[in-house]
Design goal:
heterodimer; A: six-stranded mixed beta sheet; five-stranded mixed beta sheet; 4 helices; 9% helix; 32% strand; B: 85 residues; mainly beta; 6% helix
């Protein structure tokens, strides 16, 4: 007969293997911003992809007529919180890039309010990224990036630009706002790519 | 998101500057406004602090801190006045 029960040695004390190193599970949804929350009316909203050959544009109605994905994913903030099983609706970057031709390999995401963040194009395609407009069954709240934000859940959440308004193709990887100011150019939570 | 004034950044910056930088006048490279950094708008979050010009909202400076390092950026400041003596 063992005196050591599962309560002391079993799974309940083990770390959840969905949590990257250095992360703590939260159940709320902390708000992090680098400035005031922009108020963007969907009637004025526009999303663009700018390439070497021109600009592709979608207004809100055109955007809503695209194929919409349901996304169930974990998210990881560089400030050490992770949230598991978050539910989103949005348009896949694969859908947005269907008719976009470019030889350029890098992307700068631009947001209303001036925020920028950089991501290599191959990290946005093949089911890895969305422009999301719903969280947990509700329209995305402005303080969480509504009406629409980038969702790149395999990278730290500063890459999931709130209030996204467009993607600009670049021929080399240039740092965005936080990446210029101390944060990692890439931001893989499983490698703890937090800072320079 | 709410902001506070630049005095909020005086403590964290005191660790890195030999004087209280928030009493220095800085020139915004966006609109040219000159004001003490204490008058700037500061947005603080666990990711870092962002100082914005009270006149035009442009980012003046950033402070990012990890356990063993800090990054202080003055991307939107063209010059800071430092008083001698």
């Amino acid at each position: 007969m063992s005196f050591i029960t599962r309560g002391f040695s079993g799974r309940s004390r083990e770390r959840d293997d969905r949590l990257p190193p250095g992360q703590t599970l939260v159940h709320d949804f902390p708000v992090l911003s680098a400035g005031p929350t922009p108020e963007i009316d969907t009637a004025e909203w526009e999303f663009t992809i700018r390439t070497e050959s021109g600009v592709h544009r979608w207004n809100w109605d055109e955007f809503m007529s695209l194929k919409i994905d349901e996304v169930d994913t974990d998210i990881h903030c560089v400030t050490h919180w992770s949230k598991l099983g978050t539910r989103w609706r949005g348009v896949s970057l694969d859908t947005l890039f269907e008719d976009v031709e470019t030889q350029l390999d890098y992307v700068m995401a631009h947001s209303y309010g001036g925020y920028t963040t950089n991501v290599p194009l191959d990290e946005l395609l093949d089911g890895k990224a969305w422009v999301a407009f719903e969280f947990d069954g509700e329209p995305l709240d402005p303080e969480h990036g509504g009406p629409a934000r980038l969702l790149v859940p395999h990278l730290y959440f500063w890459k999931s630009a709130k209030w996204v308004r467009g993607l600009e193709m670049m021929d080399q990887d240039e740092p965005g706002f936080w990446e210029q100011n101390g944060y990692h150019l890439h931001g893989d939570p499983w490698k703890e790519e937090r800072y320079w | 998101m709410q902001h506070v004034d630049g005095n909020a950044i005086a403590g964290p910056l005191a660790e890195f500057f030999a004087f209280d930088v928030t009493t220095s006048v800085a020139r915004c490279s966006g609109c040219g406004a000159m004001a003490e950094l204490a008058r700037a708008m500061v947005y603080t979050s666990p990711a870092g602090s962002v100082l914005r010009c009270a006149s035009c909202d442009q980012v003046l400076a950033t402070l990012v801190e990890s356990d063993d390092r800090a990054w202080i950026g003055f991307s939107g400041v063209s010059a800071i006045e430092v008083r001698r003596g």
